[in-house]
Amino acid sequence: MIVIDRKIIGMTFAAHSAVVEAGQLRFFAKAIGETNPIYFDESAARDAGHPTLPVPPTFFFSLELTRPESNWREQAGIQLPRVLHGEQQFTYHRMAYAGDTLHFEGRITDVYDKKNGALSFVVMETTVTNQRGEHVADIRKSLVHRNG
Known about the structure:
With 148 residues, the chain is α+β, with helices and mostly antiparallel strands. The chain has four helices and five strands.
């Protein structure tokens, strides 16, 4: 049976930044079935009190995927064919918009088992700030590793 190395708790990921592009926002909003025009039309966004297109809910997940790859999974004993996406949670502190540069700082906060060790859960948390250093969001996600 595979055992996920708990020494990865506390491991940090290389901080990275991503520019929020209007075209990406429109594409993402369409992909998730969003119909509110503030996510597609800059005039509608301004009419609703936004300076430009706001970031749709859960878009931070896409930007977080732009993080430079590292070998943390190998260090932990994680095998990608055995991985499932377990959970995703967002806590929003302020709006983000097209044109913002968002900064992501992530870390592994927990590793635990269920089903008598058949499943291991790796919990990761990421803090998102904007170009002004303002706290925009927190992302918490769980990766599930099938061990058996």
